[in-house]
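Input protein
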Amino acid sequence: MERNHKPWDLAPGVSRIFILGTLLIFLACPYSALAEGVMTDLEPLGGTYSAAYAINNRGQIAGTSTNEFGQLRAFLYSDGAMTDLGTLPGGTLSWAWGINNRGQVVGGATDRDGYTRAFLYDKGVMKDLSTLGGTDSEAYGINNKGQIVGWAQTADGEYHAFLYDKGVMTDLHTFESGTTSFAIGINDRGQITGEWYTVSGSSSAFLYSKGGMTRLPTLTGYSNAYGWGINSIGEIVGNAYKVVGQEWESRAFLYSNGSMTDLGTPFGGSYSEAFGINNIGQIVGGAETASGEFLGFLYSKGIVTYLETLGGTYSVVNAISDAGQMVGVSTTSEEEYHAFLYTRPRIPPRRP
């Protein structure tokens, strides 16, 4: 069963790099299907696949779709229309990860030589952000100040997290020489989360703040972790995981005020992931059910609710705006993967 529908799972080969106590909040909470709201199918750009990964507070959405030729293309969905953002000169592929409230989009695209390059799309122009001296890079997040994070290859061939600000790409380095780091999310205070990989391949979530990178603790019993999203007060969501036999077990987590909270597996399965958190503290992601399906969830005000699908058996929520609009990917009745927008009644701007 496919669980984590990031582009590196869905389109292998597109990107060269794919990468203390616990409180079982989910297990203690009731859950039900979302009674209110509308799930809109964001149909592909002529192909059969689309996925939405980010939404801003204006309701604009960034994601990835296949076109009529089966090529991956970054898109911007705004005012009911999906726009193909094109590629870098000479390239054929692109995919989008992040968007800010100014409508600036970031992601990755192939160049004329087939390398993956981080891009910024702004006012109709896709800009190559270059690298840290190597050949490849990819951008994942952008804040409302226009600061961009991602990963880039160094001149030594390593892959390091970067911060791109005012035209300059800065190497955020790693905890140890010869290792790999990725920056995934950034808030308006310039705090960054992501993941760091050891030489042996194990991973840790991190927080980069005020010029220093701190390795986050992981959950009890789990040796690896990813940091996916961060909000305005520095709360981080992600997942901790371990391999049991040939199966992955994963738990969504919330890191807040120096403590790691296990968000459990709310639907009876053994796998959950948290991908986004808004400034109200609402968390979104996906979790396995007892019957083996995988459904998107929203954690808000102590209640876990799950999203229906577009007719299939799979959905995951990748991001949520401060207005409570959610985006992600779901299977249809034809078992195609389509991006969706889920709109609920406006949520008052206060924390649960």
Summary: DSSP finds two helices and 29 strands in the chain. Residues 7-10 form the longest helix (4 residues). Residues 60 and 78 are 5 Å apart (CA to CA). The chain has one domain: 7-19+21-343.
